[in-house]
Amino acid sequence: MPEIVLNRNERLALRAAAHALEPVVLAGASGLTPALLKEIDRALNDHELIKVKVPGDDPEERQAFFVEIADRLNCARVQKIGKTLIFWRHNPDKDEVEEVVSEKKPARRKKAPGEKKPTARRKIRAGAKDRVTKKANFSR
What we know:
CATH architecture of the domain at 8-88: 2-Layer Sandwich
CATH class of the domain at 8-88: Alpha Beta
């Protein structure tokens, strides 16, 4: 099966969502076995977005794992960081449909001069001449 291709915004949103996740599948030294593929498939059905930890010090071997898992399980390659691979596949059977790409937050607007929080100097100018301290009341 071909892998799912994501656009840049979808990939960035999924990378942000995966940041807090822990790896749910740990691959052993035996490599890419049918049992490992079955476990990754089950995890994708349950969680949609998963991290997989793979062994080995060879970057080309880890890249081959990354591509082959995505091709065999029809999932999207989100990110590869060292020995951690991140995959995503939408599960249409899930009751909750979560939006992958969120809208951008509106920019914060600057407060007008009258909306600013009053400082001690502004309070004095406004006529707040009495102030209360822990020990006593003072009048100016």
